[in-house]
Write a structure and sequence with these properties.
The chain is α/β, with parallel strands linked by helices and 452 residues long. It contains 17 helices and 20 strands. Its main location: cytoplasm.
Length: 452
Amino acid sequence: MREEKRHIEKRLVVLGAGESGVGTVILGKKEGYTVFVSDKGKIKETYKKTLDELGVAWEEEQHTEAKILTATVVMKSPGIPDTVPLVVRLKERGVPVVSEIEFADNYTAATIVGITGSNGKTTTTMMTHHILKTGGLDVGVAGNIGYSFAKQVATTEVANYVLELSSFQLDGIEKFAPHIAVLTNITPDHLDRYEYKLEKYVASKFRIIKNQTEQDYFIYDADDLEIKKYLNTHEIKPQLLPFSLTKKFDQGAYLEEKNIVVKIDNNEFIMSTSDLALKGNHNVKNAMAAATVSQLLKIRKSTIRECLENFHGVEHRLENVLKINNVQYINDSKATNVNAAYYALDAMKSSTVWIVGGVDKGNDYSLLYPLINEKVKAIICLGIDNEKIINAFGNCVDNIVEAKSMKEAVKAAYSIAERNDNVLLSPACASFDLFKNYEDRGRQFKEAVREL
């Protein structure tokens, strides 16, 4: 079993009053902390109301160092980099600066399934939760999804959690150790946050297994180059359960004559890939990971099979919106990096008008050239600065249009697309130049399509 949870002293400062911050406040109050909340930006009215009802002191649009530096523990929002001078000062003083995941983990004895990766982690998390819940487990889902982990630990008692974990959340862990860790893949992403060094980003993802023991499990993509390199050069404690489209294993998941096979301790699960509700090789891998977790947690094979047959994915991930004049409009706003856009373009079976752009995170677009040449008839750049995209694809596509709003982008796509084409929003970039987040971007796309 996992080690006994430790208790911490009692002055908690929460930096950032978003979902994870306010969830941490709720849990902190329940556990007897004196809590102070500080946000450099504006705090949403609904969160202010919650803080006031809890009797918690808060400030917005500033960080009062005199109040913050007295903390015995600080929970930092994932959006705040470790390099911020205030965070550096806290660490110099020996004040633990942790993520919400680390803080909340101290107050639950639940079995944790932690899922990370550059792409596929949301789908794999939702798929896994769907199977476990349908299979009768008492299970919550949190992390990057829905209500914060801390809030759920404070307000509900469940025996299991499936957590979607970003590299930023993993950067703030010290003792956190999921019983089952899943790493879907590693491709360059958020490199602006890691000094543009891929090895630092890789190390961040592998923090998910740093505290695991021989009693724990690590499920990973054995086809992934960066994962293979790391495993070959580091000592790994948990039991390894790889998945692959090309290799076979005594323990793990693989393909055999278009069937997914999951083998764990002579227990075998088999399912045809043609029966999966979600199509594409990336979704075969997501299904392999989810099925492996479910096998470990003793879910019936018939339940796993039924759930994978009826799981239709998550909003903003290759989501069919509408067909207008025989043109299919597809919302893949969650594709915030090049590799996610690669999966989307690879899944297109006909000529595509591609809406791309936003805040570039150090993208290398050359990976996409073969798919652009094969499938993309026109590109619509949706961002404040589109120069890098225009330079990258100017030689691949004759028709490149710039748009400054989602409505403008969708109207441009409508005028270009012909019968049987696709219009695909798959931005390959972060959304923060024109939108609040990728959800806002996806919803604006769907709204603009419905108004055509």
